[in-house]
Amino acid sequence: MIKKWWHDKVAYQIYPKSFYDSNGDGIGDIPGIISKLDYLKELGVDILWLSPCYRSPLADQGYDISDYYSIDPRFGTMADMERLIAEAKKRDMYILMDLVVNHCSDEHEWFRKACEDPDGKYGHYFYLRDKKEGELPTNWRSYFGGPVWDDLPGTDKQYLHVFHKKQPDLNWENPELREEVYKNINWWLDKGLGGFRIDAIINIKKALPLRSYPADRDDGLCSMQAMLKEAAGIGTFLSELRDRTFKRYDAFTVGEVFNEKPGELPDFIGDNGYFSSMFDFNETIFGHSEKGWYDASPITPEDYKNCCFASQEKAGNIGFLSNIIENHDEPRGVSRYIPESDRCDKSKKLLAALNFMLRGLPFIYQGQELGMENLPISSIDEVDDISARDEYRVALDAGLSEEAALKALSHEVFWPCITFKSRDNARTPVQWDDSPQAGFTTGTPWIAVNPNYREINAKAETADPDSVFHYYKKLIALRKAYPVIVYGRYEPLLEDNEELFVYTRTLEKEKLLVVCSFCDHETHFAIPAEFAGAACLISNRNRTYTDTELTLEPYEAFVLYHQVK
Hints:
Layout: E1 11-14, H1 30-35, H2 37-43, E2 47-50, E3 54-55, E4 67-71, H3 78-90, E5 94-99, H4 109-116, E6 128-130, E7 149-151, E8 157-160, H5 175-190, E9 195-198, H6 224-230, H7 234-249, E10 252-255, H8 265-269, E11 277-280, H9 301-315, E12 320-323, H10 333-337, H11 345-356, E13 361-365, H12 386-397, H13 402-407, H14 424-427, H15 458-463, H16 468-481, H17 483-487, E14 489-493, E15 500-507, E16 510-517, E17 523-526, E18 535-539, E19 549-552, E20 557-563
Parallel strand pairs: 1-2, 1-13, 2-5, 5-9, 9-10, 10-11, 11-12, 12-13
Antiparallel strand pairs: 3-4, 6-8, 7-8, 14-15, 15-16, 16-20, 17-19, 18-20
Helix pairs in contact: 5-7, 11-16
């Protein structure tokens, strides 16, 4: 693998709307991010990915962009963005923006002009089909529910939207459209961006000609996956995208890629891959059901371990995956992977350690470093997330009672119950202190603050050297100090043990042993002879590891290091 400037970095995702509000309007903003750069520098992160803050009607919280060259006034100004890039650079930090180019907003100038003249230039920027009464062009189901086709206003045509109806898909088959995309990307890179996170990128390539597939639910529609399995040739688009933009700037890029085809991983993240990295979603998609969230399978610690091991094996020496516990589209990891009865600082630290020591680039989602948890809900009226609202309806249509459907969106996880998926969990405001609204705003927050902010907040944790925050800070420092954590070969141990999550990392004469007791009871572990007397780099328990036969506490985690003679 060719070494890159970003290999030893640690990334942090910011959801601007919920990070920090500088002006009291209840919405986080760019000046708020700037005011917290020193906090992020203290934590030790290098790369900051901002979820969309472009001008948008916010039908899908900014992933519906109406102007790619403008900052939404709710988040600040272009001058604020330029100042953020400059202030980050002073701290040796890089800013990533979200690149959302599978679709735009129906309020974008291109779409408005397509409505005015669907057969003209801008009509070809989208997928338009003649409207036939009682018949859809295809039977694909939108990711947010319902058909992917809607009437093009003022015309006798329909347009394709694989996400929200206010997010019309862009036609990447059109070279003029691609040129506009590249022009915009380079405009931002010229401003000093470090790169991009690439949103929903697999969807840019449709299987042509567009056709229907067998229905997989009573609604007569089929999952988007049916079409994507047939779609071929995305590499033509992505290699052109790389060569015309990212490669010219040595930019860092990370792709949101759920379903690359077998054998394609080197094309995506190899030495000359389309992207620098791509997210590992193995754990987050585990248990998915085509029927809906209500039918999802739970994920156990053993499942979690197997997902991690499979991803590590798949990536091998090909390139770096970006490892996550949670993000803006997922529930809080500590609430998904740790039962409420066992949720404490020690178990949260275990989850951090086992993830951070894996090979790949660690991504921390805002508040994860504090151990923030899911939001309690008691009514569907409290849910803002459009996808969660659709899944609630799907559960009702499947025959579940309102109580059972809401339980499918419940804030707690007890193996083996349903996993909560609402994106609201990760979108609650960052808990800065124990003052009203968790110090996020002096006004009324756009979404409810988690009531546990009095116990879980940055002010308390930065002052407590034994907190989850300081544990993450130490993990980050270790990654920068020990190349074996970055480049070491990964090897799983005790793969059949359902209680222990154990693996080694090896780089020339350096070797790590990572041991995590991912269960709610004591376990026994024999330290391999080669690690006898090895130094303990980090532990979530105050003890020494000089004995070779250990009785581990529930959720105990430690990392041993030695140099081979």
